[in-house]
Amino acid sequence: MKYLFATFSLIAMLIAYPVMAQDKSLMLAYQSDLADLFNKTANAPDEEVRTAAATEAIALLEEALSQEKSFHWNWQLPKSVSILTAPDRRFKIFTWPLVLDDGEYRCMGMIQSYNNKTQEYDIYKLTDKSDEIMNAEESMLPPDNWYGVVYQELIVTTHAGNNYYTLIGWSGIDNLVQRKVIEPITFRNETSKPQFGGPLFRKEKNQRRIIFEYSRNAMVNVHYDQQRYTVTENQKEKVNGRQVLVQNNRDQLAQMIIFDEINAMLPGMEGLTQYYVPTGTEMAYIFVDGKWELHDKAQGRVSDPKLDKEFAPLPKKKPAYQQRPVSDKNDKDEQPSKTENNDEEDDE
Q: What is residue 306's predicted lDDT score, i.e. its pLDDT?
Protein backbone atom coordinates (compact mmCIF):
# COMPACT_ATOMS: atom_id res chain seq x y z
CA MET A 1 0.00 0.00 0.00
CA LYS A 2 2.84 2.39 0.91
CA TYR A 3 4.53 1.49 -2.38
CA LEU A 4 1.33 2.28 -4.37
CA PHE A 5 0.89 5.62 -2.53
CA ALA A 6 4.49 6.60 -3.25
CA THR A 7 4.07 5.61 -6.89
CA PHE A 8 0.90 7.68 -7.30
CA SER A 9 2.58 10.66 -5.60
CA LEU A 10 5.55 10.42 -7.96
CA ILE A 11 3.26 10.23 -11.00
CA ALA A 12 1.32 13.30 -9.79
CA MET A 13 4.55 15.25 -9.35
CA LEU A 14 5.81 14.25 -12.80
CA ILE A 15 2.52 15.41 -14.34
CA ALA A 16 2.47 18.69 -12.39
CA TYR A 17 6.14 19.59 -12.97
CA PRO A 18 5.81 20.41 -16.70
CA VAL A 19 2.76 22.57 -15.91
CA MET A 20 4.63 24.52 -13.23
CA ALA A 21 7.66 24.88 -15.50
CA GLN A 22 5.41 26.11 -18.29
CA ASP A 23 3.77 28.68 -15.99
CA LYS A 24 7.13 29.95 -14.84
CA SER A 25 8.41 30.18 -18.40
CA LEU A 26 5.33 32.17 -19.43
CA MET A 27 5.64 34.61 -16.51
CA LEU A 28 9.37 35.10 -17.18
CA ALA A 29 8.51 35.97 -20.78
CA TYR A 30 5.91 38.51 -19.62
CA GLN A 31 8.40 39.96 -17.15
CA SER A 32 11.12 40.34 -19.78
CA ASP A 33 8.82 42.04 -22.30
CA LEU A 34 7.35 44.33 -19.63
CA ALA A 35 10.81 45.32 -18.39
CA ASP A 36 11.75 46.41 -21.93
CA LEU A 37 8.54 48.42 -22.29
CA PHE A 38 8.92 50.11 -18.90
CA ASN A 39 12.54 51.01 -19.70
CA LYS A 40 11.36 52.64 -22.95
CA THR A 41 8.57 54.43 -21.07
CA ALA A 42 11.10 55.94 -18.67
CA ASN A 43 14.13 56.51 -20.90
CA ALA A 44 13.29 56.74 -24.61
CA PRO A 45 14.27 60.22 -25.88
CA ASP A 46 11.22 60.51 -28.15
CA GLU A 47 7.83 61.23 -26.55
CA GLU A 48 5.94 59.17 -29.13
CA VAL A 49 8.08 56.13 -28.36
CA ARG A 50 7.58 56.61 -24.60
CA THR A 51 3.82 56.99 -25.00
CA ALA A 52 3.51 53.97 -27.29
CA ALA A 53 5.58 51.85 -24.90
CA ALA A 54 3.44 52.93 -21.93
CA THR A 55 0.22 52.05 -23.79
CA GLU A 56 1.60 48.66 -24.81
CA ALA A 57 2.79 48.01 -21.25
CA ILE A 58 -0.74 48.53 -19.88
CA ALA A 59 -2.21 45.96 -22.27
CA LEU A 60 0.57 43.44 -21.66
CA LEU A 61 0.45 43.85 -17.88
CA GLU A 62 -3.30 43.28 -17.91
CA GLU A 63 -2.76 40.09 -19.91
CA ALA A 64 -0.03 38.93 -17.52
CA LEU A 65 -2.13 39.59 -14.43
CA SER A 66 -5.00 37.57 -15.90
CA GLN A 67 -2.85 34.43 -15.70
CA GLU A 68 -3.71 31.97 -12.94
CA LYS A 69 -1.68 32.51 -9.75
CA SER A 70 -0.06 35.65 -11.21
CA PHE A 71 -0.77 37.46 -7.94
CA HIS A 72 2.01 35.42 -6.29
CA TRP A 73 4.59 36.10 -8.97
CA ASN A 74 7.63 37.94 -7.60
CA TRP A 75 7.92 40.68 -10.22
CA GLN A 76 11.37 42.02 -11.05
CA LEU A 77 10.75 45.22 -12.99
CA PRO A 78 12.60 48.55 -13.39
CA LYS A 79 12.40 50.73 -10.32
CA SER A 80 10.38 53.34 -12.19
CA VAL A 81 7.51 50.92 -11.54
CA SER A 82 6.12 50.84 -8.00
CA ILE A 83 4.68 47.49 -6.88
CA LEU A 84 3.00 47.44 -3.47
CA THR A 85 1.34 44.37 -1.95
CA ALA A 86 -0.95 44.36 1.07
CA PRO A 87 0.49 42.05 3.76
CA ASP A 88 -2.84 40.18 3.96
CA ARG A 89 -2.75 39.68 0.15
CA ARG A 90 -5.96 41.71 -0.23
CA PHE A 91 -4.56 43.56 -3.26
CA LYS A 92 -1.47 44.43 -5.25
CA ILE A 93 -1.06 47.78 -6.96
CA PHE A 94 1.27 48.75 -9.83
CA THR A 95 1.88 52.42 -10.68
CA TRP A 96 4.39 54.24 -12.88
CA PRO A 97 4.86 57.67 -14.53
CA LEU A 98 4.95 58.75 -18.17
CA VAL A 99 6.82 62.05 -18.59
CA LEU A 100 5.96 64.19 -21.62
CA ASP A 101 8.39 66.47 -23.42
CA ASP A 102 6.88 69.59 -21.82
CA GLY A 103 7.57 68.16 -18.34
CA GLU A 104 4.00 67.11 -17.60
CA TYR A 105 3.40 63.78 -15.88
CA ARG A 106 0.79 61.16 -16.66
CA CYS A 107 0.51 58.41 -14.09
CA MET A 108 -0.60 54.93 -15.03
CA GLY A 109 -1.49 51.88 -13.00
CA MET A 110 -3.18 48.54 -12.48
CA ILE A 111 -4.58 46.86 -9.40
CA GLN A 112 -5.23 43.21 -8.60
CA SER A 113 -7.75 42.80 -5.79
CA TYR A 114 -9.41 39.80 -4.19
CA ASN A 115 -13.06 39.04 -4.84
CA ASN A 116 -14.61 37.29 -1.83
CA LYS A 117 -17.48 35.92 -3.90
CA THR A 118 -15.49 34.31 -6.70
CA GLN A 119 -12.38 33.73 -4.56
CA GLU A 120 -10.27 35.05 -7.41
CA TYR A 121 -8.29 38.20 -8.12
CA ASP A 122 -9.90 40.77 -10.40
CA ILE A 123 -7.98 43.35 -12.42
CA TYR A 124 -8.72 47.09 -12.70
CA LYS A 125 -6.89 49.60 -14.88
CA LEU A 126 -6.22 52.98 -13.23
CA THR A 127 -6.98 55.97 -15.47
CA ASP A 128 -5.39 59.27 -14.45
CA LYS A 129 -8.02 62.03 -14.51
CA SER A 130 -6.27 64.30 -12.00
CA ASP A 131 -6.50 67.30 -14.38
CA GLU A 132 -10.28 66.96 -14.54
CA ILE A 133 -11.22 66.15 -10.94
CA MET A 134 -12.84 68.99 -9.01
CA ASN A 135 -12.64 69.08 -5.20
CA ALA A 136 -10.14 66.22 -5.20
CA GLU A 137 -9.61 66.45 -1.43
CA GLU A 138 -13.30 65.68 -0.86
CA SER A 139 -13.86 62.99 -3.52
CA MET A 140 -13.98 59.21 -3.35
CA LEU A 141 -12.84 58.02 -6.76
CA PRO A 142 -13.20 54.80 -8.79
CA PRO A 143 -10.34 53.28 -10.84
CA ASP A 144 -11.48 54.93 -14.10
CA ASN A 145 -11.47 58.40 -12.48
CA TRP A 146 -8.22 58.12 -10.55
CA TYR A 147 -6.21 60.94 -8.98
CA GLY A 148 -3.00 59.67 -10.55
CA VAL A 149 0.15 59.34 -8.49
CA VAL A 150 2.98 56.81 -8.20
CA TYR A 151 2.46 55.14 -4.82
CA GLN A 152 5.51 55.00 -2.60
CA GLU A 153 4.13 53.52 0.64
CA LEU A 154 1.27 51.25 1.67
CA ILE A 155 0.26 51.52 5.33
CA VAL A 156 -1.95 48.95 7.03
CA THR A 157 -3.59 49.91 10.34
CA THR A 158 -6.07 47.93 12.41
CA HIS A 159 -9.08 48.92 14.50
CA ALA A 160 -11.88 46.74 15.94
CA GLY A 161 -10.62 43.77 13.98
CA ASN A 162 -10.68 45.57 10.62
CA ASN A 163 -7.74 46.44 8.38
CA TYR A 164 -7.47 49.97 6.99
CA TYR A 165 -5.23 50.67 3.99
CA THR A 166 -3.62 54.05 3.35
CA LEU A 167 -1.40 54.96 0.39
CA ILE A 168 1.23 57.68 0.07
CA GLY A 169 2.01 58.74 -3.49
CA TRP A 170 3.89 61.31 -5.59
CA SER A 171 3.57 62.92 -9.02
CA GLY A 172 5.79 65.42 -10.81
CA ILE A 173 2.74 67.24 -12.36
CA ASP A 174 4.79 69.65 -14.53
CA ASN A 175 7.98 71.74 -14.67
CA LEU A 176 6.81 74.02 -11.84
CA VAL A 177 4.87 71.93 -9.33
CA GLN A 178 5.03 68.48 -7.79
CA ARG A 179 2.52 66.73 -5.55
CA LYS A 180 2.32 64.24 -2.69
CA VAL A 181 -0.91 62.57 -1.63
CA ILE A 182 -2.15 60.62 1.40
CA GLU A 183 -5.29 58.63 0.58
CA PRO A 184 -7.14 55.61 1.96
CA ILE A 185 -8.17 52.79 -0.36
CA THR A 186 -11.30 50.76 0.31
CA PHE A 187 -13.28 48.06 -1.49
CA ARG A 188 -16.99 48.55 -2.12
CA ASN A 189 -19.32 46.19 -0.30
CA GLU A 190 -16.51 43.71 0.31
CA THR A 191 -16.12 43.24 -3.45
CA SER A 192 -12.90 43.58 -5.39
CA LYS A 193 -13.65 47.05 -6.82
CA PRO A 194 -11.39 49.68 -5.23
CA GLN A 195 -12.32 53.19 -4.19
CA PHE A 196 -9.61 55.78 -3.64
CA GLY A 197 -10.13 58.23 -0.80
CA GLY A 198 -12.13 57.77 2.37
CA PRO A 199 -13.45 59.46 5.54
CA LEU A 200 -10.54 58.45 7.75
CA PHE A 201 -9.41 61.94 8.78
CA ARG A 202 -10.73 63.00 12.17
CA LYS A 203 -11.97 66.57 12.69
CA GLU A 204 -11.55 67.39 8.99
CA LYS A 205 -15.07 67.44 7.59
CA ASN A 206 -15.49 65.91 4.11
CA GLN A 207 -11.75 65.24 3.85
CA ARG A 208 -11.14 62.15 1.71
CA ARG A 209 -7.47 62.62 0.89
CA ILE A 210 -4.62 64.97 1.83
CA ILE A 211 -2.86 66.76 -1.03
CA PHE A 212 0.44 68.64 -0.84
CA GLU A 213 1.42 70.73 -3.89
CA TYR A 214 4.73 72.56 -3.80
CA SER A 215 7.67 73.86 -5.82
CA ARG A 216 9.36 71.44 -8.18
CA ASN A 217 12.67 72.53 -6.62
CA ALA A 218 11.62 71.84 -3.02
CA MET A 219 12.07 68.60 -1.09
CA VAL A 220 9.11 67.69 1.15
CA ASN A 221 9.00 64.62 3.36
CA VAL A 222 5.75 62.64 3.68
CA HIS A 223 6.31 59.15 5.05
CA TYR A 224 5.29 56.60 7.66
CA ASP A 225 7.69 56.22 10.54
CA GLN A 226 7.99 55.64 14.26
CA GLN A 227 8.66 58.99 15.89
CA ARG A 228 7.90 60.99 19.02
CA TYR A 229 5.29 63.67 19.40
CA THR A 230 4.35 66.02 22.22
CA VAL A 231 1.24 65.26 24.24
CA THR A 232 -0.28 68.06 26.36
CA GLU A 233 -2.13 66.90 29.46
CA ASN A 234 -4.14 68.86 32.02
CA GLN A 235 -3.27 67.78 35.55
CA LYS A 236 -4.39 69.02 38.95
CA GLU A 237 -1.57 70.31 41.13
CA LYS A 238 -1.40 72.16 44.43
CA VAL A 239 -0.13 75.71 44.09
CA ASN A 240 -0.04 77.83 47.26
CA GLY A 241 -2.36 75.35 48.89
CA ARG A 242 -4.94 75.48 46.11
CA GLN A 243 -5.82 72.88 43.45
CA VAL A 244 -5.20 74.31 39.99
CA LEU A 245 -5.11 72.85 36.50
CA VAL A 246 -1.62 72.81 35.03
CA GLN A 247 -0.68 71.85 31.48
CA ASN A 248 2.21 69.40 31.26
CA ASN A 249 3.92 68.22 28.11
CA ARG A 250 5.44 64.79 27.58
CA ASP A 251 6.91 62.98 24.60
CA GLN A 252 5.21 59.82 23.34
CA LEU A 253 6.43 57.29 20.78
CA ALA A 254 4.05 56.25 17.98
CA GLN A 255 3.80 55.16 14.35
CA MET A 256 2.74 58.16 12.31
CA ILE A 257 2.59 59.70 8.86
CA ILE A 258 5.02 62.52 9.44
CA PHE A 259 5.21 65.41 6.97
CA ASP A 260 6.64 68.86 6.40
CA GLU A 261 4.27 71.79 6.74
CA ILE A 262 4.41 73.84 3.53
CA ASN A 263 3.55 77.45 2.79
CA ALA A 264 4.28 80.23 0.31
CA MET A 265 7.84 81.56 0.29
CA LEU A 266 6.69 85.17 0.66
CA PRO A 267 3.47 87.04 1.51
CA GLY A 268 1.33 87.57 -1.56
CA MET A 269 2.26 84.18 -3.08
CA GLU A 270 -0.51 82.28 -1.28
CA GLY A 271 -2.30 79.91 -3.65
CA LEU A 272 0.60 79.83 -6.13
CA THR A 273 1.82 76.34 -5.29
CA GLN A 274 4.94 76.65 -7.46
CA TYR A 275 6.25 78.92 -4.68
CA TYR A 276 5.37 76.61 -1.77
CA VAL A 277 8.24 75.21 0.28
CA PRO A 278 8.69 73.58 3.73
CA THR A 279 8.31 75.99 6.65
CA GLY A 280 10.62 74.01 8.94
CA THR A 281 7.74 72.69 11.05
CA GLU A 282 6.95 68.99 11.02
CA MET A 283 3.44 67.63 11.63
CA ALA A 284 1.89 64.18 11.70
CA TYR A 285 -1.19 62.05 11.27
CA ILE A 286 -1.47 59.38 13.96
CA PHE A 287 -3.98 56.52 13.67
CA VAL A 288 -6.23 56.69 16.74
CA ASP A 289 -9.44 54.66 17.16
CA GLY A 290 -9.89 54.04 13.45
CA LYS A 291 -9.08 57.57 12.24
CA TRP A 292 -6.03 59.59 11.19
CA GLU A 293 -5.71 62.36 13.77
CA LEU A 294 -3.68 65.49 13.03
CA HIS A 295 -0.94 66.49 15.50
CA ASP A 296 0.98 69.71 15.05
CA LYS A 297 3.55 68.97 17.74
CA ALA A 298 5.27 66.03 16.08
CA GLN A 299 8.94 66.12 15.27
CA GLY A 300 10.71 63.81 12.85
CA ARG A 301 13.94 62.87 14.53
CA VAL A 302 16.89 60.63 13.96
CA SER A 303 16.23 57.53 16.07
CA ASP A 304 17.59 57.91 19.57
CA PRO A 305 16.04 56.32 22.67
CA LYS A 306 17.31 59.04 25.02
CA LEU A 307 15.03 62.02 25.21
CA ASP A 308 17.66 64.26 26.79
CA LYS A 309 19.68 64.35 23.56
CA GLU A 310 19.15 66.93 20.86
CA PHE A 311 17.26 65.52 17.87
CA ALA A 312 17.95 66.54 14.29
CA PRO A 313 15.17 66.76 11.71
CA LEU A 314 14.84 63.79 9.41
CA PRO A 315 16.95 64.19 6.24
CA LYS A 316 15.08 65.19 3.11
CA LYS A 317 14.69 62.59 0.37
CA LYS A 318 14.02 62.94 -3.31
CA PRO A 319 10.83 61.27 -4.58
CA ALA A 320 11.62 57.62 -5.28
CA TYR A 321 10.07 57.73 -8.76
CA GLN A 322 11.19 61.14 -9.97
CA GLN A 323 12.31 60.72 -13.56
CA ARG A 324 15.66 62.09 -14.64
CA PRO A 325 17.18 62.81 -18.04
CA VAL A 326 18.79 59.75 -19.57
CA SER A 327 22.24 61.36 -19.35
CA ASP A 328 22.36 61.46 -15.54
CA LYS A 329 20.33 58.38 -14.63
CA ASN A 330 23.41 56.87 -12.96
CA ASP A 331 23.85 59.76 -10.56
CA LYS A 332 25.54 58.48 -7.41
CA ASP A 333 23.06 60.32 -5.18
CA GLU A 334 20.10 58.38 -6.56
CA GLN A 335 18.35 56.45 -3.81
CA PRO A 336 17.15 52.89 -4.35
CA SER A 337 13.39 52.41 -4.38
CA LYS A 338 11.85 51.44 -1.07
CA THR A 339 8.60 50.31 -2.63
CA GLU A 340 9.64 47.55 -4.96
CA ASN A 341 7.72 44.33 -4.53
CA ASN A 342 8.93 42.46 -1.46
CA ASP A 343 6.66 39.43 -1.60
CA GLU A 344 7.95 36.59 0.52
CA GLU A 345 6.41 34.17 -1.97
CA ASP A 346 8.37 33.70 -5.18
CA ASP A 347 7.93 32.04 -8.50
CA GLU A 348 9.43 28.71 -7.54
A: 47
